[in-house]
Amino acid sequence: MSKLLSEDNGNIAWRCPGCDCVHNIPVEVGVKVDHKWQWNGDGEKPTISPSVFVHGSEECHAVITDGTIQFMGDCSHKLAGQNVPMVEFCW
User: Residue 14's closest CA among 44, 58, 59?
Assistant: First the structure.
């Protein structure tokens, strides 16, 4: 199993243990959005840059490096300021 899902629409998605939901972002060329993130292509130890800031029921700001999520201090959930390994992707 993988830590994230590479979707046909050019997005990648992962389960966030801080928000307990799925986050997704555009990463592939050809997707008509203003901003794209860089992804190393590794499903087991993904690195995504720059940081990801998600506005939702929780505010989530994270850096993902080699399969570890570094939650920034401005997150509104219980994992703010912590480093945690990514979990296996599941809906």
Answer: 44
